[in-house]
């Protein structure tokens, strides 16, 4: 299976990551994950590891371009770019990137399916193959103290996430992380669709989850980070074909 490319030049890698990040944001818009000013995706800078690139405050997912991306430091200062940072984006992503060195990317949005699932105080059950990617690898955070704009709130989210690949925030939405922005974004898209399956099935009747043995067997394939990365390449090609303007730098 194809794996993420390796770069010798940080500038070349940065350009690649910014294109991938922008594609992920456009895909979030394509899938209807937008909710006004809410939602943000980030990827760690390949050279300055204490900084991350993120979509800016006040630009719709469906309008974001590579040239719109901003780079933010540990103090929340925009060190590259001309647009402001979303306060929630800074406190959430800076905490996750600080506490999870291996998590080079994170994705967050207030999707209908994730909000509906948390309104029921439910996590994701292994009711199909795709959902096993998150079996024993996500948490439901029940704490809520209003919009996440304080650094201590961001740290609490990162603490609750721990070493998992996804966290459902009650009354709030979903966050996923990955070693690449491709992985983090695909996990998010897949999780949200799995949440929809669970909600539809629960509305129609009683859920019948897999056994632990079945879930473990399915997770060995569907939970593979390389599969997530590769799956995103299909989505990347799709959004490039649909909306090539996002590549404008």
From TrEMBL:
Task: State the superkingdom.
Answer: Bacteria
- Gene Ontology CC, one term: cytoskeleton
Which InterPro entries does the entry mention? Answer: Aldolase-II_Adducin_sf, Aldolase_II/adducin_N, Aldolase_II/adducin_N_sf
Annotated GO MF terms: actin filament binding
| SUPFAM superfamilies found in the cross-reference section | AraD/HMP-PK domain-like
Q: What is the recorded name of this protein?
A: Ribulose-5-phosphate 4-epimerase/Fuculose-1-phosphate aldolase
- Give the residues annotated as coiled coil: none
Q: Which family does it belong to?
A: Belongs to the aldolase class II family.
Which residues belong to any copy of the Class II aldolase/adducin N-terminal domain? Answer: 19-199
**Species lineage, top-down?**
Bacteria, Bacillati, Actinomycetota, Actinomycetes, Pseudonocardiales
